[in-house]
Write a structure and sequence with these properties.
By secondary structure, the protein is an alpha+beta fold. Helices cover 19% and strands 45% of the residues. The radius of gyration is 19 Å and the shape is elongated. The protein folds into two domains: 43 residues; 135 residues, Alpha-Beta Complex (Nucleoside Triphosphate Pyrophosphohydrolase), CATH 3.90.79.
């Protein structure tokens, strides 16, 4: 039995499901008050999100179809950090794959966790400036992506999208928050 911080105890732990991207851990636990229960944890490797800003101050978003919700969403370029890849290398790869751009200047804005109650995925956010390739393109997108449009929007337009609930990807909202507060 493993005693964790703040009185939680893990009685047993097993992987209930696993694929190349995630695993789901099923833990038998004892809560701090003594009651036994189960806790499910989605284990997922870290990822990156890129706030790409052109010389005019516009922010790049991709409009893409998401199978999980059978709908289309605006998002920042983002994705998983591949095994053996640094976070910065991953951010550069994602910017190239999803928008077809490279950047001269990179700055780490911060990090956050996507769903503290059930998932351990950390997202590292980068600001990309000094963008190369004046015409953005989704021609490099991967087989599991359906990028329908690349949008270049002013910060005011992005904030209006947030206020009108037209930008509702959690990773994008958290990353933009780090950018707007920087």
């Amino acid at each position: 039995m493993n005693t964790n911080k703040h009185g939680w105890k893990t009685l047993s732990s097993r992987i209930a499901y696993k694929n190349p991207w995630i695993s789901v851990r099923h833990d038998r636990i004892v809560y701090p008050g003594g009651r036994q229960g189960i806790y499910g944890v989605v284990q997922k490797g870290p990822g990156v999100a890129v706030v790409a800003v052109n010389d005019a101050g516009q922010i790049y978003l991709v409009k893409q179809y998401r199978y999980t919700l059978d709908d289309v969403f605006y998002e920042l370029p983002a994705g998983a950090i591949h095994q053996g890849e640094s976070a910065l290398a991953s951010a550069k790869r994602e910017l190239w794959e999803e928008i077809g751009l490279k950047a001269d200047k990179w700055k780490r804005l911060g990090n956050f966790y996507t769903a503290l109650g059930h998932e351990n995925a950390e997202i590292i956010v980068y600001l990309a400036k000094g963008l190369k390739h004046p015409k953005a393109s989704s021609l490099n997108q991967q087989h599991d992506e359906t990028i329908l449009e690349i949008a270049e929007l002013s910060p005011t337009e992005v904030k209006k999208m947030i206020q009108s609930n037209r930008l509702n990807c959690g990773i994008t909202l958290a990353a933009l928050n780090l950018y707007f507060l920087s």
